[in-house]
Every structure is written in C-alpha cells, then in structure tokens.
Amino acid sequence: MELNDTAILPESDARKINAVASQAYPLGLLPNLKINFYSIDAIQLELRDNSGDLIWRDFTFSRDFIKGFMPYIRTRN
Prior knowledge:
CATH superfamily: ykff protein like domains
Distance between the termini: 19 Å
Helix content: 25-40%
C-alpha cells in the first residue's frame, strides 16, 4: 500500500485507513497493508505477514476498526 492510495476513498474511510497506516509506516509494515474496495460502502483493510499469511482484516465501517488493528501492528514491533 502507498500512503496516497487512500485518495480515491470516501473521506471517513480514508481517515481510518490513514490512522492505521501512520502506525504501520514507521515499523515497515506499510507494504503489508492492502485495501480491498468492494463498493463505496464496503472497504476492507488487510494486514499480512511477509509470507502473505493473513494477520488481521476488517471493514472500515466497523465500530472498532482502528482499535482492532493496533494490537496486531504493535505486537510486530
């Protein structure tokens, strides 16, 4: 994922994904994040390890979207 990938997303979703990306970037995990754009209302973010195994994924409309990702990003530090 590139930091500018969120430019095409709805503003509220982009803010949530940028919050996760800003925590992942200093740890070198930004390339491990992938945005899945199913529709304007269904946008998902995945975190995978370097071998491609899924660590965590969630939809941006989830109430605890940012909070759900943080433990997985922090434990990989």
